[in-house]
Amino acid sequence: MATDYDAPRKTDEESEDSIEELKTRRNDKNSGKVDEDEVEAAEAFELPGADLSHEELTVRVLPRQADEFTCGSCFLVKHRSQVAVVKGGVSYCVDCAG
3-class DSSP state for residue 3? Predict the structure, then answer.
């Protein structure tokens, strides 16, 4: 069976609203508002500079691996493929040497 994919599709579930219903919705000032508790919404936001001393982080720190180096300028640990220059025994990454 051939299907015309350019033809508009309608299902039985779709129903067109009458002009009166649409006018009623447009005039209803509360129809576009979302019911949301302002206190709950405010609790979800964290302000910059907020006191986070009660928060606890658990991070596993790994020692520098054999194929890594510490940049002499930015002091970040990077893979040895990022070495750009070695001056006086100190390695510098491509970001700092460029």
Answer: coil
